[in-house]
Amino acid sequence: MITRVLGWLAALGLLAGLAAGFGYAPPEAVQGNVQRIMYLHVPSILTAYLAFGLVLIGSIAYLATRRPRWDRLASASAELGVLFTAVTIVSGSIWGKPTWGTWWTWDARLTSTAILLLVYVGYLMLRGLVDDREARGRYAAVVGILATVNIPIVHFSVKWWRALHQPSTILGPEPSPIDPAIGLALFVNWLAFTLLFAYFLSRRIEIARLEES
Amino acid sequence: MIAAQDLRKAFGPTLVLDGVSLALPRGRCLAVLGPNGAGKTTLLRLLATLQRPTSGTVTIDGVDAVREPDRVRPLLGVVAHGSYVYEDLTARENLRFWETLRGGDPSAARVAAALAQVELDAVADERVRTFSAGMKRRLGLARVLLAEARLLLLDEPFTGLDRRGQKWVNEFLLAFKAGGGTAVVATHSLGGSLAVADRIAILAQGRLVLDRPATDLSPEALHRLYESLTEGAEAAP
Amino acid sequence: MTYARRAWIVLQKDLLIERRSKEQTNALLFFCLLLLFLFQFALGPDRERLTAALPGLLWLGFILAGLLGLGRSFLAERENDCWEGLRLTPGDKSAIYLGKLAGNCVLMAAVEVVLVVLFGVFYDVDLWTPAAPLALVLALGTLGLASVGTLFAAMTSQARARELLFPVLLLPVQVPVLLATVSATQALLLGQPLADVAHWLKLLAGADCVYVTIGVLTFEFVLEG
Predict the structure, then answer these.
(1) What is the distance of C-alpha C68 from the center of its chain?
(2) How far off is chain B from C2, nearest CA to CA, in Å?
(3) Which chains touch C (3 or more CB pairs under 8 A)?
(4) What is the pLDDT of residues C26-75, one digit of tens each?
């Protein structure tokens, strides 16, 4: 029931997001229409971070309680995190082609996002290769905790290794100089993606529960 | 000493143990009989805190072994298919390793005494790689002796042993009981266990189909009962 | 006190087994030698290109050798179900982790010394002058690699396709260690003072602390059944 409501809310949110991104928000002053891909790019990476945060919570809670529901939360979140990270990388790549003139560059944030993807793909592979359900939960939880705690370490190491990217405008410490209309459109899309994530998550957990019983 | 209440263990959709309850007082020996695949090893592993039951409880010396495995582990002595020995260490080094890791006293005299008790003193400084299966099992028993275990859990201790070796294990169990120890032995060899068991239990397809004092059963009666109770179980997948 | 003794006996046991199974240790060292030839063939005889790539190659060598060495470190525990014996040992399981970690560090250090000497001889680089700061980078990097490697080797030893799963799981997590050690090694080989790589050393030290802490806290769950 809640899942269905979430699904409709997410659909409405995405429609509103499309309208806000393409109709309401003006083209950005410097980059023009290309910038509109940010309405996909930024919400997906924020959603991916939310997902990886939930992997950490689910993993710790599973080790503490050994309740399968926490393991299902961690596993479903990891799958969605990988999905949204992939969307982030692909959309960033599409944005990069006209902006930087190349699909891929070893810039700091691109690289650390790609590493993030690899780490959690490894996590999902581990899940696939351990047969015992209980052991799979424990091992995955340990990897999940390490992977999430590792994110800031990866971030700093890659940043020091190479700093080419424009500074982050959403999460950065400096006040963001973006147009309020663009900001609102980003917010609407972020909300829509979070709803979409919640819908996917509850569906995926439901499926995992049915698979196990 | 040890009590199990309504133990169930499922691997995926298959129920390996289906509601097994048993109790054994201190100083007694229980033989769990049954054909291959009846759930003996799983039952022993649940009692040994090596696996958690899907439901049900195990109580050892009044402590909940499922909730607090680390509190009962100092009492346990487990000798299973793998005898927990490192092939590249000598018998003496193996014992010293396990006793130190347990936090016990690995002094040379104690290790030598344990080796003498299982009659491995002549090969104490040879690598385990050269040992037979029976010798490795005896080394496992020496580890248990050194750890001063109060509850012995043996999985198929008679397999691969000749008559003399089987007799040796029986004598070992008698001596262990005489010292106040309790033992659970899982085996499919009817003959091997009868001499020392105080209680006989038969497991078939995950259920306890018989649990009786051994004095009630003559060897012939046990054979007949075993055949009728486990009929068809061996052929079942 | 008992805790330290327990960790120590695990280390002692592992080194003893390693020493007795000489063939495997020798094969690992031989593998290092082969790597050197491989790098030479891949990059050609151009000395300048080799020197520029040297820090990366050095660490690539450590990591490849480390993957093989670390990946094997729980094989002895699988034989005769010793793994279960460890699980049944009462008391804090992290002592076993620290003993295993120490054993793996010793093994990796041995391999690294051999590789460094071989590099120095074959590629004619002066590794002697920056030896002390280089040793510090090596030590911090090795601890980072071994701390996560020990933890992951323990769990993948119970999984299918473990030879593949272990590197796939370990390598992405180890990117910070790789970046930090390669960058620091590069700077040191160019003759820069230790102070110039202080930020990398701090990152390595911080990462090591995080990894070892997670290993100590979670090893129990890897071992437990």
Answers:
(1) 10
(2) 6
(3) A, B
(4) 888 888 889 888 888 888 877 777 778 888 888 999 999 999 989 888 98
Question: Highest mean pLDDT: which of A34-43, B36-45, C212-221?
Answer: C212-221
- DSSP one-letter code for B56: E
Residue of A nearest to C159 (CA): A130
Are the C-beta atoms of residues B17 and B206 closer than 8 Å to each other? Answer: yes
C-alpha span between B22 and B2 (Å, rounded): 8
From B86-90, B229-233, C119-123, the region with the lowest mean pLDDT: B229-233
Provide, as residue numbers in chain B, all residues whose Cβ is less than 8 Å from the Cβ of C84: 50, 78, 80, 82, 84
| pLDDT tens readout for residues B26-71 | 999 999 988 888 889 999 999 999 988 989 999 999 999 998 888 9
Q: How confident is the model at residue A172 (pLDDT cuts 50, 70, 90)?
A: very low
Q: Is the pLDDT of residue B235 over 50?
A: no
Contact residues for C137 (Cβ-Cβ < 8 A; gap 6+): C181, C184, C185, C188, C197, C200, C201, C204
Which pLDDT band holds residue A161 (cuts at 50, 70, 90)? confident
A154 to chain C: nearest residue by CA?
Answer: C176
The contacts of residue C173 (CB under 8 Å, 6+ apart) are A119, A122, A146, A147, A150, C148
Residues in CB range of C8: below 8 A, 6 or more apart? C99
Residue C48 neighbours by CB distance under 10 Å: 7
- One of 1.10.533, 2.60.40, 3.40.50, 1.20.120 is the CATH number of A2-212, namely 1.20.120
Burial class (CB in 10 A: 0-12, 13-18, 19+), A100: middle
Alpha helix segments (H runs only) across A66-179: 68-100, 108-129, 133-161
- pLDDT at res. A120: 96
Interface of C with B in 172-211 (CB under 8 A): none
Per-position DSSP letters for A100-129, written without gaps between them: HSSS----HHHHHHHHHHHHHHHHHHHHHH
Residue C193, token pair as written in the block: 């003072």
Ranked by mean pLDDT, the top range of A137-141, A191-195, C117-121, C129-133 is A137-141
Task: Name the C residues in 82-101 with CB < 8 Å from any B CB.
Answer: 82, 84-91, 96
pLDDT of A95 higher than 90: no
For chain B, the average pLDDT equals: 87
Chain C hits for A158, CB-CB cut-off 8 Å, are 175-176, 179
Q: Is C4 on the interface with B (CB under 8 A)?
A: no
Q: Provide the mean pLDDT of chain A.
A: 85
**The model's pTM:** 0.89
Count of CB atoms situated within 10 Å of the CB of B225: 17
Strands of the B14-24 sheet, one edge to the other = B14-24, B2-11, B55-60, B63-64
Residues in contact with C211: Cβ distance below 8 Å, sequence separation at least 6, in sequence order: A146, C143, C144, C147, C148
**Apex CA B190: angle with CA B185 and CA B191, to 5°?**
100
Chain center to CA of A71: 19
**Which chain C positions have a beta carbon within 8 Å of A139's beta carbon?**
155, 158-159, 222
Q: What is the DSSP letter of C85?
A: H
